[in-house]
Every structure is written in structure tokens, then in C-alpha cells.
Amino acid sequence: MRAARYYGKEDIRVEQVSEPSVQPGQIKITPSFVGICGTDLHEYLGGPNFCPVKAHGVTGETIPVTLGHEFSGVVKEIGEGVEGFTVGQPCAIQPTIFCGKCPACNVGARNICHNGGFIGLSGGGGGLSEAVCVNATHVFPLPHGVSLETGALVEPLAVAWHAVSAAPEITKDSTVLVIGGGPIGLAAILCLRGKGVKNIIISEVAAARQRFAKEFGASSIINPVKDDVNKVISEITGGKGVDVAFDCAGVPASVKSACENVRTKGTVVNVAIWEKEVPFNPNWITWKESSYKSVLGYGPEDFKAVIENLGTGSIVPQKMITAKINLDNLVRDGIGALISDKDNHVKILVDMEASRAPRHKSAAL
């Protein structure tokens, strides 16, 4: 079968590999649509990072590995002992890999497993292939009316849902600040809207991302380069500050802005992955007894919640899809486009259904 394989920095090849055999407790999936993630870009530009150069602690694999961790597909084959699924059933896949033995796993926090990783980055196959075998517990059926294209958005939406759920004090009447209008920031807006929140302020520099944020449900747009963010938020909230601030940007100015603009006893939620240390003054939140917490990834409960909200129409994410491409054009039209024109894209999907026609044996992209 064909698969997109990561060999190292700026080296991704579509080549022939052996199709995996389904094991007991597993389901073989035929991938349909695969989202290209910021993590994929980091691996391409500066990796290997997540992709293992030494044997991964759970999968035992090293590069080359098959890519694709945001994906939907249909059930192709059902392994021994698996019940509740049918061949041809449309599904979304939770790609989390965990050891089940470390201190994090022992307290149920498998999303932060000390030895963890992701299908499509750390071994175990990936969505950018013609077949992948995954544990049945990671396969989530899509309800009627939820397309396979939308199913490929469940993973990034689950990241946002996990973040939004970290602030249980949020109500429909809350005023919320989202800093950063990239894919996860925009997904956070969709999830907040799914929870009924209407007062959503977005702080974002790029005009295209401001437009996306407005379309996705933000009630107020702030440009931190042109506007006095603190003054605008004070005016919007009557001087109180926002109830919850989500930092999806991960830059020095964003953490400062989040902490300065959250209300007394409010909550700042860090969603970003930071590339380097930044200045932080605890007094930003100490004088208000505000809380600062961080989130990472998602759990099965987040996948279930997102899929349920997709099924009811509470979350409508189709506008996140800004392009669909063929597997053979992964680097040029996918990764390349997200690097050179990132502000005008939210999520580029690789259409695996349209990519199944036989091609040449191997090609470096």
C-alpha cells in the first residue's frame, strides 16, 4: 500500500509499504481525510521532534514513520474480540499512544503519558496511508449527517474542547478572551459557541484570521498591534476583565495580555506549546487571586463530546477546511501552502479517497 513516510527534516516520501495485519482488539481503518497539523510543519521544518530517532517507548519504532494523526476513515476489518462496529462504518480516530504504566497514566491522565506519542508521528502507522490498524478504544463512530471530511476535524476540535472544559466556571453569560486566531484558537471559538457562549473576544493580528474568527462566532475583534488591548477589554467588560482567557498564541505578549485582562478570581488557560522560556510576573494574577492552568491534548471524553456536538449541530466547523489536496502533493500544496500562506488557511485536508489511484512506486516530495 502507499503511505507518506517521514525520514527527517524536509524529507517526506510517498512510497510502498506493507499493509498491516489487524490484531485482536484492533480495527483496520481505511483513511478518508487527513488534516495537516502545525506539528507536522514543525517536523518538516526542524524535526525530528515527535518522530522518534531512537526506539519509541511504546511503539518501538524509529524513523521513517508514517504521518497523519488528524484523520477520519471507514472500518475495513474488525479484529478478534471487538464488538459494536461494522465494516464500512465511518469513524474518527483518537491517535493517542500511551504506556499505561507511568505516573500520569496511573492517575488516568493518558493524554500526558510520560512515554506517549501519537499514531501518525510516533509509529503505529498513520492516516496518510491506505490502511492503519488501531485499538478499538480509539475508534469513534460518526453519527448520521457528520461527513468524513468533518470527521477529520474532530482531533483539533478535541484539543480545543479539552481546553474549554478546563474552565468549568464558563457559562453562557461569560465573557471570554481567545488570544491567537490560528487553527486551535479558531477551534476554541467554535467549541465555546457549542457551549452557548456568545461574548467571545479574539485578539489576533492577521486580517484573514480576524475574518475567520468573526465567521466562526467571535463577537469582538482586537488587533493587538493597532489597538490598546487592555483599554478595549476594559470597555467591553465594564472594567471587570474577562472571566476566562485562553492563550493559544504562546508568545511573551500573549501570556502578559491574558493575565492582565482576566478578572478577579478569573482563570487563564494556557493552550499553547512554548518554544522558549518567557518572562512571567506572578503579580499579574496574584493581586487578583486569578488562576493559571495549562492543558495538553485531549482524552476520549473530549472526542465523544465533540462528536456529539457535531451530530446535534452545536458545532459547525466546515469553514475550517480551506483546501483539499491529493496525497502526491502533500508537501507542495499542503505543507508548503501552510508555510507560505498560513494566514489564509485554517485546515488543509489530504483527500485519501481521491488519492487511491495507483502511482509510481516511490517519490520524494
TrEMBL record:
SMART domains: PKS_ER (SM00829). Residues 8-350 form the Enoyl reductase (ER) domain. Pfam families: ADH_N (PF08240), ADH_zinc_N (PF00107). Keywords: Metal-binding, Oxidoreductase, Zinc. One of its GO terms (molecular function) is zinc ion binding. InterPro entries: ADH-like_C, ADH-like_N, ADH_Zn_CS, ER, GroES-like_sf, NAD(P)-bd_dom_sf. GO terms for biological process: butanediol biosynthetic process. GO terms for cellular component: cytoplasm. Its cofactor is Zn(2+). Belongs to the zinc-containing alcohol dehydrogenase family. This is Enoyl reductase (ER) domain-containing protein. It comes from Bionectria ochroleuca (Gliocladium roseum).
